[in-house]
Amino acid sequence: MKVKEYYFIDVDTTTMKIVKWGISNTATLTGNTPIKNIQRIFLTKGQYNKLLGKI
Known about the structure:
By secondary structure, the protein is of the alpha+beta class. The chain is built from 1 helix and 3 strands, in the order E-E-E-H. Strands 2-1-3 form a 3-stranded antiparallel beta sheet. Strand 1 (6-12) and strand 2 form a beta hairpin. It is flat and about 40 Å long. The mean pLDDT is 92.
């Protein structure tokens, strides 16, 4: 059975900077993270690949 992959970027909401990006096997509906100022934004695989091509 194939494991579901979720593509994401983590944004620091105080500085509006990307602090992390990657692939996870779990997702939350809200995008909340354990760190108060970090918000997780989920992307499609195509959006994620385009991001990687630009950075």
